[in-house]
Design goal:
By secondary structure, the chain is an alpha/beta fold. The chain has three domains: 25-109, Arc Repressor Mutant, subunit A, CATH 1.10.10; 114-184 and 293-317, Periplasmic binding protein-like II (D-Maltodextrin-Binding Protein, domain 2, 3-Layer(aba) Sandwich); 188-289, D-Maltodextrin-Binding Protein, domain 2 (3-Layer(aba) Sandwich). 38% of the residues lie in helices and 22% in strands. The chain has helices at 25-37, 40-46, 51-65, 81-109, 127-138, 151-159, 223-235, 249-257, 304-317, and strands at 70-73, 76-79, 114-119, 143-148, 165-170, 179-186, 188-193, 203-204, 213-217, 241-246, 263-266, 277-282, 291-297. The strands form four sheets. It has a five-stranded mixed β-sheet with strand order 4-3-5-13-6, sandwiched between helices. A hairpin with a 2-residue loop joins β1 and β2.
Length: 318
Amino acid sequence: MYVSPIGSLPASAAPTPPPAIPMDLKRIRHFVVLAETLSFRKAAERLHMTQPPLSVSIRKLEEALGVRLFERTPTGVLLTPSGHAALAEARRLLFHGTQFETAAQRAFDGTGGVLRIGFVGSTIHGLLQRLLTRYRAEQPGVELVLREATSTRIIEQIENETLDIGLVRTPLLHGSLIELLPLETDQFVAALPLGHRLAKRRKLALADLADEAFVMYSPAEGAGLHSAAMLACQQRGFLPRTTQQAAQIQTVLALVESGLGVALVPSVMQSFVRPGFVYRRLTDMPPSAAIGLALAWRPEIENAAAERFRAMAQREFV
């Protein structure tokens, strides 16, 4: 006669359902393997354990559930109706448990999880595509969340931990929490409305723009570019007459195209061509007014995915 593993419950009793308790995935795995083999010996071999601890594990699982999952027979065990009903859900639990473990481990080692990247608009002229293509090839399991913003906003979001890393314009007026990895160096070129009197000249000196109206970067939103442009002009003997301000380089160029002034823009923008303005190289740009693009991060909160991205960027550009 079969003796219930739940000693206090006769086979005909209708037990009161116990309160919900957390399920041990190890015991769930034992249940599934025993249900698939219907043999304690074969299940124990597959699980690389001996039969007595497997029997104890199954008994404790049945006690926790308050139902019998198996009935013993002379040739092995059979699933009870409750065991049959539980098997599909047990397999789902194991699948999702494995997924849970994998997701946690990948986030820990940087091969999974989410990486939040801020970027300035001018990175789309080559740098952003190059970095993303290489990173996705190396870490296909990481979900990328991309946000375009100004360098100032990106730094703020890294500091308040709503971004992990950022691709920003330099020079950058930033706090001590942020570190920068320079990726590309650049220099200013002049952007002129198409009909401007200086547009016919192939080369210009910065001093040639001394009397012109300037479209300048906002000192609040584009502090780095604003500082570099102002410094360059001052070192060439004049203070630019600013008539318009904008936060984004693309907006600066739109205002130049509208005939509202000239501007100093990073040379990488020369790939952005519009019929209403022209670019001209400046022959006397002071070296101290150098600009560029950099990767920004906060070391004390850097996660593994961000660290892998930074390492990849350093291999690509440094």
